[in-house]
Design a protein that fits this description.
Elements (H helix, E strand, L loop, with lengths): L4 E6 L4 H12 L4 E8 L7 E4 L2 E7 L10 E4 L3 H13 L3 E4 L28 E3 L3 H16 L2 E10 L6 H15 L18 E2 L11 H14 L5 E8 L5 E10 L5 H10 L3 E3 L11 H4 L5 E8 L6 E9 L2 H17 L13
Parallel strand pairs: 1-2, 1-5, 2-4, 5-6, 6-7, 8-10, 12-13
Antiparallel strand pairs: 3-4, 8-11, 9-10, 11-14, 13-14
Helix pairs in contact: 1-8, 3-5, 3-8
Bound molecules: adenosine-2'-5'-diphosphate.
């Protein structure tokens, strides 16, 4: 009999939490028990799993007794407050928040890129930032062949990155604008419907927002290549749940677009989408609800002999968050890396 595991989803009522629930069901994760946790606001909510309603329980430090694995997507402060208790109770936490990502003792894992990093942990494994996961899938296969020296990225990020309420806000704003009313803003600082704005995360002294610095620092950690130069401009666009990214890569020597195409056509988690005759390339609408990162428009950078441009779209909730987390869980289970935590992190 294969072993099965007691799993808790922390943040089960959120956009990523609901996707985690759906993925555990469709990917047939070996479950002994499933516990759904959220804030006290969700007490009494029932969520369906395999046709059965499961009650959502308010999360606290006592919620993790008997739990092997916690899939956490309830924000950084909740993770900071509850992950150490989960680890102390013997669970391994796969955390979707940014709380622990840059901690030197915490592996930051994209299973297609650095699966080996998940082997050694102290009870917490971090799921990277969504734009970073998507970019890493499309660029690491090239980096393995010929080291990337510099990445210049521009992102077109969907509302889902700010959670389920943000997605609802964009829908309401769209309805209001179409009805001739002025759009209301609660989650986002400005109307997103029929608009876009630079990413609304806090800015640092150099004028970069947090989201942009996540792409810089997390990519370096995942690739284990601290020397890569990376710059990014992150923008929110009125798309519901798939992010897009325009990426310029610089190598030491020219990287032929045909070779890049050949490599990416075979890369795990990537789907090449290019019809040059029809001018058809990845679009968020085609990436939505799907697992792969769609990559296309691979072309020589006319401004640099060693430059390559590409374009990608990926479902932010799925590969950008929930799917990556479930794949980490599968990696741990398949390789017997889900060992009891040996120490509580000094976060
Ligand atoms: P709730 O629905 O009860 O507020 P999203 O990213 O889509 O906004 O979802 C955030 C998730 O995190 C939700 O499931 C939310 O639960 C949960 N959450 C927020 N704050 C807490 C908290 N203090 N403790 C546990 N879960 C929380």
């Amino acid at each position: 009999m294969p072993k099965s595991y007691s799993v808790a989803i922390l943040g089960a009522t959120g956009a990523v939490g609901r996707e985690l629930l759906a993925l555990l069901e469709t990917r047939n994760f070996p479950l002994a028990q499933l516990k759904l946790l959220a804030s006290p606001r969700s007490a009494g909510v029932m969520l369906p799993f395999k046709g059965e309603p499961i009650p959502v329980e308010p999360a606290d430090t006592q919620s993790f007794q008997g739990i092997d694995l916690v899939l956490a997507s309830a924000g950084g402060s909740t993770s900071k407050a509850l992950a150490p208790a989960a680890v102390a109770a013997g669970a391994v936490v796969i955390d979707n928040s940014s709380a622990f990502r840059m901690h030197p003792e915490v592996p930051l894992v994209v299973p297609e890129v650095n699966p080996h990093a998940a082997a050694i942990h102290q009870g917490i494994i971090a799921n990277p930032n969504c734009t970073t996961i998507l970019m890493s899938l499309a660029t690491y296969p090239l980096h393995r062949i010929q080291p990337i020296r510099r990445i210049v990225a521009a992102t077109y990020q969907s509302a889902s990155g700010a959670g389920a309420q943000a997605m609802e806000e964009v829908k309401l704003q769209t309805q209001d604008i179409l009805a001739g009313k002025s759009p209301q803003t609660e989650i986002f600082p400005y109307p997103l419907a029929f608009n876009l704005f630079p990413h609304n995360s806090p800015l640092n002294e150099f004028g970069y927002c947090e989201e942009e610095m996540k792409m810089v620092n997390e990519t370096r950690k995942i690739f284990d290549s601290p020397e890569i130069r990376i710059t990014a401009t992150c923008v929110r666009v009125p798309v519901l749940r798939a992010h897009s990214e325009a990426i310029n890569l610089e190598f030491d020597t020219p990287f032929s677009p045909d070779l890049a195409r050949e490599v990416l056509a075979q890369a795990p988690g990537v789907e090449l989408v290019e019809d040059w005759q029809a001018n058809y390339f990845p679009m968020p609408i085609d990436a939505t609800g799907r697992d792969p990162v769609l990559v296309g428009r691979i072309r020589q950078d006319l401004s640099h002999p060693c430059g390559l441009d590409l374009w990608l779209c990926g479902d932010q909730i799925r590969k950008g968050a929930a799917l990556n987390a479930v794949q980490i869980a599968e990696l741990l289970v398949e390789n017997h890396w889900l060992k009891p935590a040996i120490a509580t992190l000094n976060a």
